[in-house]
Structures are given as structure tokens and as C-alpha cells.
Amino acid sequence: MLGSLSGRTVLVTGAGQGIGRAVAVQMARQGASAVAVADRNKETAAETAELVRAEGARAEAIVCDLRVRDSVHEMVERTAECFDGLDVLVNNAGVIETAFTAEPERGVDSLSEEVWDAVYEVNLKAVWLTTKFAAPHLRRSRRGPAIVNAASVSGLTGFPNAPAYGVTKAGVIHLTKVTAVDLAPVRCNCFCPGVIDTPLAQGYFAAAADRDAMERELTAPQLVERLGRVEEVAKLACFLASDDAAFITGASYVIDGGALAWLGVRD
Ligand SMILES: NC(=O)c1ccc[n+]([C@@H]2O[C@H](COP(=O)([O-])OP(=O)(O)OC[C@H]3O[C@@H](n4cnc5c(N)ncnc54)[C@H](O)[C@@H]3O)[C@@H](O)[C@H]2O)c1
Prior knowledge:
The protein is α/β, with parallel strands linked by helices. The chain has helices spanning about 20-30, 40-55, 70-85, 115-140, 165-185, 200-205, 210-220, 230-240; strands at about 10-15, 35-40, 60-65, 90, 145-150, 185-195, 250-255. It has two domains: about 10-195 and about 230-255, NAD(P)-binding Rossmann-like Domain (Rossmann fold, 3-Layer(aba) Sandwich), CATH 3.40.50; about 195-225, no CATH class.
């Protein structure tokens, strides 16, 4: 199939839902030959794999817990073995404090060490480990090898009550740069979404005392008056993975409806 990702073999983490699912499907739509759909949730990974097959690509659903080193290693090796190599790695999976604690205490001075470690292990340590294990395969690729990481606007500016999330996303932005340096000519870039309509964002709204007020508060700084769509982020991720972005590496791309463009809020 012709397309900007023609013939690529791809691994997407956290591909069972949300942005990761959209990225897996969009990769296939743009010509990827095979997509490994990794998630800790077996059922949702299998659903995404079906969606990828419906776009004409091969798909392998892989159950992986990114907090477990051997599971990460197995995910990468199984992908490379099934697809005879790896051209594109998308480190998409991420978690926020609300996934681990129902407690209102999520500030710098009240977060528990357990929650800090859980967010760190998925959002930053696993991104590094997956990159480390994928590096030999990506270096062997002759089809424009690339890594795309999921960061966040939270890694660029301060948000309340998600300290581990923001710090780990800032870490992903820097990890993107050092990866681009150390693995060149393998390219590495990241996307920094604002508020995108996914189960993660909906869970964050739901954890607030007033769900709708929280959604309004988070989208009020945007110049585009709506939640972002997963397809919009997926198209950016696919661009960064493709040869159309051959001169781009070590870079961060904000996709936030303009929220970081100014210091204001809409009326
Ligand atoms: N949705 C947003 O508004 C938004 C904003 C900024 C950044 N992001 C980032 O984009 C990425 C995708 O976000 P999303 O909103 O689609 O999230 P989501 O919660 O909807 O989906 C994340 C997926 O990752 C999987 N996952 C979580 N922990 C895992 C683990 N230990 N091992 C394996 N898989 C695991 C989950 O099962 C889930 O399928 C994340 O890195 C997130 O931080 C999202």
C-alpha cells in the first residue's frame, strides 16, 4: 500500500484506547505494513488489533505491563521477531495521578511516594527502557527509523495537582532530545497534547468535585473552543514518524488548541 509510512513496522504502547489506538489505526491507514498493539489490557489491545487489520495491515496484540522490565523487553523482542524488524516506535502510554489515587491529596506536599513511583515508572522509566531495548532494531532499519514519544503541555508549564505527571512529561521532552542525539540517525521527536478527548482526560474530569467546571477550566485557555480529537494527535504522530519529517529530530510539537500561546482565558 502506498502512503507516507509505506512498508513500516510499528510498535505502539498504550494502544488499547485513546490516542494510542488512534495512532495504531492511522499508521495502518498511512501504509504501515504491520503494527504491534501493546497494552496491559488484553481485550482493548485485541480490539485495536482488529481495527488495524481492517485498514489492511498486519497486527499483533501484545499484553505488556510497562512497569515490569522483563515485560517491556519481551514486548520489544516479540514485535521484532513477528515483523522481522522494527522501523517505528511510539512510546504513547502514560498515566496521571488520578489513575492511582481517589484521594484529593495530589499536590507536591501531599502526594504519596507510591503514586509518584507509579507515574514515574510508566511515564518516564518505561519510555527510556522501551527505547533502550528497541534501539538495536531501529539502528538496523533501512526504512527511516523513528521514535515518537507522548509528552504533554504539562511538561512545558505548571498545572495544579499532578506533580509527578508534569515532571515526568518534562522528562520525556528532554529524553526526546538526548535520544535524538545518542541514536542519530534514528530520529526522535515528541508531541505535547493539551486536552484531548480520551478516557484519561475524562477520568481526570470525573475526579473533580464538579466535572463540567473542570472541563471548562481546562479548555478556557484554548483559542480553539473544544476538546482535541485523538485523530488530530494521531496524524501529528504519523507525520513525525514519516519521511516527510526527515529533517526533524529532537523536537517537541505542541498540539493544544492554542492554550500555551498566551496567558489568557476566554470569556
Ligand atoms: N488525553 C489527554 O488530554 C492528554 C494530554 C496530554 C498528554 N497525553 C498523553 O498521551 C498519551 C495517551 O493518553 P490517552 O489520553 O490516550 O490515555 P488513556 O488513559 O486513554 O490510554 C492509555 C493507555 O495506556 C495503557 N497503559 C497504562 N498503563 C500501562 C502499563 N503499565 N503498561 C501497559 N499499558 C499501560 C492503558 O491501558 C491505556 O490503554 C499519554 O502518554 C498521555 O499522558 C494525553
